[in-house]
Amino acid sequence: MDVYYVDQEAGQSVALDQGEWGHFYSEDLYIIDLKGKNHRYVLMWMGPKLDPDQYTVTAKYFDILTNYENSNEITR
Predict the structure, then answer these.
(1) Which residue, 9, 62, 12, is CA-closest to 40?
(2) In terms of residue numbers, what domain contains 43?
(3) Considering its fold, how many domains does the chain have in total?
(4) Mean pLDDT, 10 residues at a time, over the chain (76 residues)?
(5) Whole-prediction pTM value?
């Protein structure tokens, strides 16, 4: 599993050290990348203080993390 902070100002996602996992802030976006043996889940955590429009911003970061793969082996 990997966890990324979405730095919207820099336009990139930044991998977090395992010690930082679970310390999410209410005005930020995070991506959780769970890689199983046969399937991969790429999930987003959105801080409760963010505008719902921010949800669409994460799509491009999902694409980058999955190398633009769109298959039945990945659930977003």
Answers:
(1) 62
(2) 2-75
(3) 1
(4) 89 89 82 92 83 74 85 84
(5) 0.80
